[in-house]
Design brief:
Length: 317
């Protein structure tokens, strides 16, 4: 049979499509409980007359990050516009690569959903605190304690009305480089579950991790390292990206490579192709390394497309 036989190509494509659909269906079942939590938050916001948007893609809303890393990203211009007033809420799929080396500990996730509340010169800090304590009460969840920056302790501590212990914390600040504000953070079982930031002293920026709330109220077990990697990869793919050598495509390729190197598996053609690609690069490196001793990692990547950190040690046989 010819190498590029159309029937064989179609059969392979159908198999990959079936595997992808099966993966997505399995994920939908696994995250149904978390989905109900997001819908519950949506209904709560709507009952308060607050418009709600659900965003499943991790595509960034501006050019400051490769992926959306916070629910407030799309609203940054509104925080800075002194003429804008209003309050909105959302659930935003986020991806933060800074947690890559800490995944699997039950509290750090590469991708997660942030439940957000954003008010521009309309809601007060007191209103935001009452809003979130009321919402958490609908989940039968009471924080063990909250933290407040010492500079706002005298002003904000009375807003909790003695409902829970308060701990001063000089780390309760937030900044994106141009917009800054003090914050108060909510803790349960030693883990931060969310915070209220007061950007510019006039706005409200709230973020609560849906994944952490789900673990607390529903007992959903945390993903292990391979599950976290696989989930982040699928979220990037579902957001419309393909493996490549630049920006988001490069990140996706690195995560696919890491999953392959760790012995993980994923029913998707991108993972299969990257595994085959890594096998070819490894064979090329083993063939060429004795001809080019002492060459820098940059030379290996620029000349042969080989990430030296992914290759066998030069002392290997």
């Amino acid at each position: 049979m010819p190498k590029d036989d159309p029937a064989k190509h179609v059969a392979r494509h159908c198999k990959w499509h079936y595997l992808l659909v099966r993966h997505i269906h399995a994920k939908e079942v696994a995250y149904d409980t978390a989905g109900r939590l997001i819908r519950h938050y949506q209904d709560f916001c709507l009952s308060k007359g607050i418009d709600f948007t659900r965003i499943e893609s991790v595509r960034p809303h501006d050019a400051t990050t490769l992926f959306c890393s916070a629910g407030m990203q799309q609203y940054k211009p509104l925080f800075s516009d002194p003429c804008h007033r209003g309050t909105v809420a959302n659930s935003q799929a986020c991806l933060r690569l800074g947690d890559l080396d800490e995944i699997g500990d039950g509290t750090h996730f590469l991708h997660f959903t942030m439940l957000g509340l954003f008010s521009f010169r309309e809601m007060s800090v007191a209103g935001a605190i009452d809003f979130w304590l009321e919402f958490l009460a609908t989940l039968d969840l009471v924080p063990d304690h909250v933290t407040i920056h010492p500079d706002r302790l005298a002003e904000w501590a009375p807003l909790y009305g003695g409902r829970m212990p308060i701990v001063p914390d000089p780390e309760c600040t937030w900044s994106d480089g141009s917009i800054t504000g003090y914050s108060t953070e909510f803790y349960k079982d030693g883990v931060e579950i969310g915070n209220i930031v007061n950007p510019l002293g006039t706005c409200i920026d709230v973020g609560f991790g849906a994944d952490r709330l789900d673990m607390l109220i529903n007992g959903t077990p945390p993903e292990d390292v391979l599950e976290t990697l696989s989930g982040a990869i699928m979220k990037i793919i579902e957001s419309g990206y393909r493996p490549g050598n630049k920006e988001q495509g490069y990140v996706l390729r690195k995560l696919l490579r890491r999953l392959h190197r760790m012995g993980g598996t994923l029913d998707h053609p991108f993972f299969i192709e990257e595994g085959e690609r890594q096998d070819r690069l490894r064979a090329r490196y083993l063939h060429l390394r004795e001809r080019h001793p002492g060459m820098s990692p940059e030379w290996w990547f620029d000349t042969h497309g080989i990430e030296l950190s992914d290759m066998p040690d030069t002392s290997d046989g």
